[in-house]
């Protein structure tokens, strides 16, 4: 059996379906990245600020934020997707389809990135806060002009790592009708015993992950001014 002929056969027969599956995965991962930045970043900062000994200690806010992050990250992802089905159906009218399936992934994306953000901020040198205080910076100024600026390289690297997790999780969403390359590999590859097709799709996922990692590393190094 000629592998190249088989790959040519796969793209000739399933090229359009593979394209649709890649687009569905791209949508799920893209929305997850956007939600992680818009909500996970502020949540991580909030947990950092309100912890005991933080700039603005607040036990109630810290407990709420930390509880959300800990509980969501503790769920096995497939079980979390199933757990969220009633809520997803209430919001979208259905629990099937790429858009609806992205909903639980967005919750997980926020929790994952929030914890990354908190950890990165905790690793910053303590002198940074002292420098901000000596200049009379307010809490918002300390966050935007000192903490996030100094942590920007680590935050990009963490987002890259989180994105790779989102790619992995998106493959699970095929179980609930979310589509994507994982679902395509199972339906057209594994279930039809077309293992060359399945391995080809897996190779595409690996290539996409390697490209994402390379891009994230480049951006992270470019932002690292230390």
From TrEMBL:
Biological process, per Gene Ontology: D-methionine transmembrane transport
Residues annotated as domain ABC transmembrane type-1: 22-214
Domain of life, source organism: Bacteria
Pfam families the record matches: BPD_transp_1
Cell compartments where the protein resides: Cell membrane
Membrane-protein topology: Multi-pass membrane protein
Keywords, sorted A to Z: Cell membrane, Membrane, Transmembrane, Transmembrane helix, Transport
Similarity field: Belongs to the binding-protein-dependent transport system permease family.
Record-given protein name: ABC transporter permease
Organism per entry: Gulosibacter chungangensis
């Amino acid at each position: 059996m000629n592998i190249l002929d088989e790959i040519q056969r796969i793209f000739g027969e399933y090229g359009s379906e593979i394209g649709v599956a890649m687009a569905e995965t791209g949508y799920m991962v893209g929305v997850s990245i956007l939600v992680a930045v818009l909500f996970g970043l502020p949540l991580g900062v909030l947990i950092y600020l309100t912890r005991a000994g933080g700039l603005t200690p607040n036990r109630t806010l810290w407990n709420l934020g930390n509880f959300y992050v800990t509980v969501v990250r503790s769920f096995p992802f497939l079980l979390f997707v199933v757990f969220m089905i009633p809520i997803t159906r209430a919001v979208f009218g259905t629990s099937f389809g790429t858009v609806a399936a992205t909903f639980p992934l967005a919750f997980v994306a926020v929790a994952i990135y929030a914890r990354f953000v908190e950890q990165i901020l905790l690793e910053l040198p303590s002198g940074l806060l002292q420098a901000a205080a000596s200049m009379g910076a307010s809490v918002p100024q300390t966050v935007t002009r000192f903490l996030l600026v100094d942590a920007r390289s680590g935050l990009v690297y963490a987002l890259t790592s989180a994105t790779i997790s989102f790619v992995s999780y998106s493959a699970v969403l095929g179980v609930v009708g979310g589509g994507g390359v994982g679902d395509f590999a199972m339906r057209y590859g594994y279930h039809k015993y077309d293992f060359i097709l399945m391995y080809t799709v897996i190779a595409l996922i690996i290539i996409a992950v390697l490209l994402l990692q390379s891009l994230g590393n480049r951006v992270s190094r470019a932002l690292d001014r230390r």
